[in-house]
Amino acid sequence: MDFIKEIAAVVAKAADLDISEVENLIEIPKPGMGDYAFPCFKLAKVMKKAPQVIASEIAEKIEKPEFVEKINVLNAYINFYVNKTVFVENVLKKVSEKGSKYIGSDIGNGKTIVIDYSSPNIAKPFHIGHLRSTAIGNSLYKIYKALGYNVVGINHLGDWGTQFGKLIVAYKLWGNKEAVEKDDIKELSRIYVKFHEEAEKNPSLNDEARSWLVKMQEGDKEAIDLWKWFCDISMKEFNRIYKRLNIRFDSYAGESFYNDKMQAVVDELREKNLLTESQGAQIVDLEKYNMPPCLILRSDGGTLYPTRDIAAAFYRKKTYNFDKCIYVTALDQNLHFAQWFKVIELMGYDWAKDLVHTPFGLVSLGDGKLSTRKGHVVLMEDILNMSVEKTKNIIEEKNPNLENKDEIAEEVGIGAIIFEDLFNSRIKNVVFDFDRMLNFDGETGPYAQYTHARACSIIKRAGVDVDENIDYSLLNDEASFNVCKVINEFPDKLAEAADKNEPYIIARQIIEVCKAFNKFYNENNILNSEDNVKNARLKLVFAVRNVLRDGLDLLGVSAPEQM
Ligand code: ARG
């Protein structure tokens, strides 16, 4: 039973309105104001009456369904109080019947979503800026999957472009094989930084770099071998991080993959009269749309970041026939995406509207307590290690006898980072504060994981399977009822999260479930109650455990059974 739909049906009938229109208006009020509320403000305009009057008139005509205990009118609202036993029974049965499919649905069946996320640049360190794209993209991937979509996760690696010309020059001048093999990306970024310092004094280095890029484009063996080697070294590091984050991609087609697919884009743009020359370069003029021009070809014929993105979009449309293609990057790439989305539109493709840029705010370290080995960029791996280390200390203090301490510290330390990243709307800046995000009593990953582990431990200690013969009237206390309410809201939250591309909606609902459950746990004895009470309460614990486990998974946070 879907309570909102049922209530919408009786209101619609009484008010002579459309069910879906009513359904959209129904709210979940603050505690004490009923379980569902129908506000009449919007109707006042059409009906030309005071909203309070409308509320009373509709309420009088409503035929109270069985599951509704009480209806009252408060100002412009019609408030519905559901029968707690019926409600609790409904929710808990739904969770156990649907199992791991409870939060999800099949509204996405037959539709394809492509998500482009993480996408770090080869030969540059994986820094905390990439964390956000990785965590948000991975969560969106899981959110759409849970809704039945066919999802394709793409890591659009930054593996082509001028930086490789520079790197080759730098390597030939100041690098050596042993040092790179020993220190991999760190050594590559050291010589890359040195290149920039030296090129300021000696600009001819830039010409050399450009000629190496041309060699790469022409397939010169030495250039290509070096480039491949740099890529392999970087991928080794990236994969180590992805493994720890438990993330994989369906495709690693990076920028270089489009080398042979860009000429067609250039030709088509020219054919459609969209290219103009400007200072020797080929551009698409976007002045009419209040944007600077989109650069397609440099004066030396080299392609650019937007050219590769346009070629990639065509390839993805052809290969996956997506309904939506989502790009998860920092806010500072807004203009880049707006520009080339426009170019696709100007080329006459109506699927330009299905390209979605999903930007996010900055990430930083608040208190400056963290210093990195090199002092400049904050490396992702350092952050992971630091969080895991601190978690280990907490475990050592709180639960020194825990088995698999290292494993759990890894899951909790990393989970804390991901959870913190996803807890606010994307666009907000994230400031990492380890004390806050590792607080087991805060609105944090460890708190959610701990609550899940608590549910697991109760189930383990009970040592019984769920009894299907349950007297649900034993669960009509306020605390039990509230747990079921937040569980019941979860599937709608999933749909909302996908609608807005906002994983925080899931993160917040997880915290709601945890708070409600911990209140229930503090108020109710579970294992030492009489059998029928114990069974009923255990049924609720099972539901909480499942919802937390599956909810955390939607964020890419693991849910250890003990901690
Ligand atoms: N490599 C880019 C960066 O690190 C992000 C790429 C995002 N995806 C894209 N299709 N442009 O900034």
Characterise this structure:
With 563 residues, this protein is of the alpha/beta class. Helix content is 56%, strand content 10%. It contains 20 helices and twelve strands. Helix 17 (445-462) runs antiparallel to helix 20. Bound molecules: arginine. Arginine is lined by residues 116, 119-121, 156, 158, 309, 327, 329.
Short account of what is shown:
With 563 residues, this protein is of the alpha/beta class. Helix content is 56%, strand content 10%. The chain has 20 helices and twelve strands.
Uncertain stretches: 369-375
Alpha plus pi helix count: 20
Mean of the pLDDT scores?
A: 93
Class based on secondary structure composition and strand pairing: alpha/beta
* Proportion of helical residues: 55-70%
How many beta strands in the DSSP annotation?
12
Fraction in beta strands: 5-15%
Q: Report the principal-axis shape.
A: globular
Terminal residue distance: 36 Å
Radius of gyration: 28 Å
Q: Give the distinct bound molecules.
A: arginine
- Order of strands in the sheet with most strands: 5-4-9-10
Task: Give the biggest beta sheet.
Answer: 4 strands, parallel
